[in-house]
Write a structure and sequence with these properties.
heterotrimer, A mainly alpha (about 140), B mainly alpha (about 60), C alpha/beta (about 650), A: about 140 residues, mainly alpha, two-stranded antiparallel sheet, B: about 60 residues, 3 helices
Chain lengths: ~140, ~60, ~650
């Protein structure tokens, strides 16, 4: 088995997205940890339901150390990996793979964020996001609850 | 405007006095005041008039 | 105007009119008469300059007249008033002489003179100068109620204000001619004291009693002086406050508004900080909420898998699987140390067979179960937190908007005032004067209370002295005189009060009769009272005092009625002069008031000084055929006015 990496990586292109988010300080990005920034992109990427098989991280750069992950963060990683492997639980034994999966989803998430910001009027992205979250909540809890 | 006394004052004094002697005393003082001005003359004059009328008695 | 004689000859009635725009000399006319009588010009500025020495006052000489003279030449200012009283004529004449200096230098005051001439029917003339002349003026047109002879239509608010009562009391005193009576009373008091002192000189006990009596007498005198001083200061403060109120009418308290602005700025800044904080808090919540909602399905999916595994017993109980395998291998229970029997072995094998998942996976699932469930539950609390922070932000936005609105209101209110420092100064001065006023009122109250006590002691001492005097045989004569003196003093005091009261009631009656005869509103007012403090009160038919709420015209009529009553009771022979008589009177009442003035001039000589705006067609119509003399004041340049006779 390959050695378990001690850090999480993102596509080098995604740093531009982070910088832009920090410049415009959406979601108080400039005061967030790299881990929090990663988790946000991860969540957006996961919810997009896009296939990570076609995702290829060409050049990568580390974003944070895995020792910064909390129990909640690790739990989320495993849940994402389980979902990605269509319920195959053996995936959670392969931490390397788990990290690869979450890194791909995060990359998708950053790209989505980039496109959204590009196509949204300055200052209104958070407002639109808030509305979308309200709709998502209703969707989740009116149907699934 | 003149130095004649206001008759109303004289009548009022008469009404408030028990006796004519007192009324006459005040009347005489009033006439003296109306005739003269200044601060220097009055004491001796007042003393004289007072003696005159107070000796007459009630 | 110069070298001019104006003859106010009476016709069928005694009404005389001057018409001139502002700056044409109407006020100068009033000032000239005042100057002649009192050596001041009250309509120059708010404050009389009577405290200044003659040589320190501004020269009265017309500038044109000055420019026609050469340096070193003399120039005179003279005003004469000729007043016919029955068969006699009184002449008031004041002169002031100056020496012209070179151009740009004020003329040098040289001399002044004031005299009163009484021209008798027989042809002889009596002359009065200095104090006698001044006394004559005081009996003719008392200075401190001159506003009841020289009416200023612009300053109607002056009439019947607080201090008027004191002034009216003083002049009732003067009208009553009881000044002589008062002087006699005062002198008898002095004489009585002196006699008592003389009497007690040879009797030490009596002397002591007398000393006590004199001590209280002096204390009483001192307190009365201090009370009078307080009254003067109170009147002064009230007048200053009134003048400041005139100046500040409609002007906001700039300092107060600026202070409120500072407070609002501070509040606004505080709100802004809170607002930024809440906005940032919202961003944080939104991010966490966003993460959770986006991952919710994924997390729920895994939790469902775990629950299913548990229900199907695919998840091991909370037992260390390695321990179980070890126990099975060794055949001994590591907990109790007992050797395993068949049942135990079967049980353990059964348990191990059921666990389909690898121990590591199972372990991980068990590990992540709790955090994932907590995350699912967190979503509602994040939703609530988001709602709360949104409300907080909206509230802050509203509050900041309110603050901005209030700031704009204040800025609008205080903009346009260039003399802000002056305004602030006036407000401060007003506050200071109010404090002084209140302190003097308090002091007066305490002095009055003190006076009561001292009066008691004084009366006691007086009684004791009288007793002591009676007992001493040696001073019988003195006693007789002192007693006689004191009786006379009492009679004088009682007479004085009765006469003053009678005069007050006469003036009250006269005012009532004239006012109710002249007023055009016949069913509004019920009564007029001049109370014991000589304050005039007007009562509405509904029994409440309404002096403060009557119109300008009604107030002016009341002042006129009072003046006419004063004149009637006192026998004042001076005319009534009114500057801008209808300035403050509304259009609807102007004609009414003009008709009133016509009736007044049947009783008295009336001189009116109108502006062209005031002298409307309606007023002109009212006065047509009734006016004896009508003049127009035409300024020929900035420094001189020509008097044009119209009638």
């Amino acid at each position: 088995m390959a050695a378990i990496p001690d850090r999480i990586y993102i596509d080098i292109r995604d740093w531009d997205v982070i910088n832009q988010l920090e410049r415009e300080n959406y979601f108080n990005f400039s005061n967030k940890t790299r881990k929090d920034q990663f988790m946000f992109a991860l969540a957006i990427g996961v919810n997009s339901d896009l296939n990570i098989n076609s995702v290829n991280i060409e050049k990568r750069r580390e974003i944070f150390l895995t020792k910064d992950l909390s129990e909640n963060d690790k739990a989320i990683f495993y849940a994402v990996a389980i979902k990605s492997s269509n319920g195959d639980l053996n995936i959670i034994n392969d931490l390397n793979e788990v990290y690869k999966i979450v890194q791909k989803y995060a990359h998708i998430g950053f790209q989505i964020l980039y496109n959204r910001i590009k196509n949204t009027a300055y200052g209104s992205f958070e407002k639109i996001f808030e509305v979308e979250m309200a709709e998502l909540y209703n969707e989740l809890f009116l149907i699934k609850n | 405007m003149n130095s004649v006394l206001n008759p109303k004052i004289i009548n009022e004094i008469k009404d408030n006095c028990d006796d004519n002697n007192l009324a006459d005393f005040i009347k005489e003082l009033l006439f003296k005041e109306a005739e003269r001005v200044g601060q220097w003359w009055w004491k001796e004059t007042y003393k004289e008039i007072l003696k005159k009328y107070s000796d007459k008695g009630v | 105007m110069r070298n001019i004689d104006i003859d106010f000859k009476k016709d069928n009635n005694d009404l005389h009119i001057f018409i001139g725009r502002n700056g044409s000399g109407k006020t100068n006319f009033m000032n000239a008469i005042n100057w002649c009588l009192y050596a001041d010009e009250p309509h120059l500025s708010k404050n009389s300059n009577e405290e200044l020495d003659e040589s320190e006052k501004m020269p009265l000489v017309n500038l044109n007249a000055l420019s026609e003279k050469s340096p070193g030449e003399k120039v005179k200012v003279e005003v004469e008033l000729w007043i016919d009283i029955g068969s006699e004529t009184v002449v008031f004449k004041r002169t002031m002489e100056y020496q012209v200096e070179k151009i740009g230098v004020e003329p040098k005051y040289l001399d002044s003179n004031f005299e009163v001439q009484l021209h008798h029917k027989q042809g002889n003339v009596e002359f009065f100068e200095r104090e006698e002349a001044r006394d004559y003026v005081e009996r003719f047109v008392p200075k401190n109620i001159r506003e009841f002879f020289f009416f200023d239509g612009e300053r109607l608010d002056k009439y019947f204000i607080d201090s008027t009562g004191d002034k009216i009391k003083k002049n009732t005193f003067d009208i009553s001619r009881i000044d002589l009576l008062e002087k006699v009373g005062e002198r008898l008091e002095t004489l009585s004291r002196e006699l008592t002192r003389e009497a007690s000189r040879n009797n030490p006990d009596l002397e002591k009693t007398n000393e006590t009596f004199e001590k209280y007498g002096e204390a009483l005198e001192e307190i009365n002086k201090q009370i009078e001083e307080c009254n003067k200061n109170i009147t002064l403060s009230r007048n200053i406050i009134r003048d400041i109120d005139d100046y500040l009418a409609g002007i906001p308290d700039i300092e107060k508004e600026e202070n409120e602005l500072k407070i609002l700025d501070k509040k606004g800044a505080e709100k802004q900080v809170k607002y930024e904080y809440q906005k940032q808090k919202k961003q944080d919540i939104l991010m966490d909420y966003g993460i959770l909602l986006n991952l919710w399905s994924t997390i729920k999916n895994t939790v469902d898998i775990i629950n299913t595994k548990r229900e199907n017993n695919e998840l091991p109980p909370n037992i260390n699987l390695e321990l179980l395998e070890d126990i099975l291998e060794k055949g001994v229970c590591k907990v109790c140390g007992r050797a395993l029997d068949t049942i135990s072995i079967n049980k353990i094998e059964d348990t191990l067979n059921k666990i389909t998942l690898s121990s590591s996976i199972a372990q991980k699932l068990i590990e992540i179960e709790s955090p994932l469930k907590m995350l699912l539950e967190k979503v509602n609390s994040l939703k609530k937190a988001l709602e709360e922070v949104n409300k907080e932000i909206v509230d802050l936005e509203e509050e900041m908007e309110d603050i901005e609105e209030r700031k704009n209101e204040i800025n609008k209110k205080i903009s346009g005032y260039d003399d802000r420092e002056e305004i602030k100064k006036k407000y401060k001065e007003r506050l200071d004067q109010k404090e002084v006023l209140e302190s003097n009122i308090e002091r007066r109250g305490s002095l009055i209370a003190q006076k009561k006590n001292v009066e008691k002691e004084y009366d006691k001492a007086k009684e004791a002295l009288a007793k002591a005097l009676k007992m001493d045989q040696q001073i019988k004569n003195f006693t007789k005189q002192i007693e006689f003196c004191n009786k006379a003093i009492n009679v004088i005091e009682r007479s004085k009060n009765k006469i003053m009261n009678d005069v007050r009631l006469k003036i009250e009656k006269g005012t009532k009769e004239i006012f109710f005869n002249l007023i055009w509103k016949k069913d509004t007012f019920k009564d007029i009272v001049i109370d014991d403090n000589y304050n005039l009160k007007l009562y509405h038919v509904l029994d409440y005092e309404c002096l403060d709420t009557i119109s300008a015209a009604e107030r002016e009529l009341l002042a006129l009625s009072f003046t006419l009553a004063l004149h009637k009771v006192s026998g004042f022979e001076f005319p009534i002069i009114i500057d801008t008589p209808v300035a403050r009177v509304s259009d609807t009442n102007r004609e009414n008031f003009a008709k009133v003035l016509l009736k007044v001039c049947e009783m008295k000589q009336v001189i009116l000084l109108f502006t062209p705006d005031e002298f409307s067609k309606n007023i002109e119509k009212t006065f047509t055929n009734e006016v004896c003399n009508k003049y127009k004041l035409n300024p020929s340049n900035e420094r001189e006015t020509k008097l044009e006779v119209i009638i």
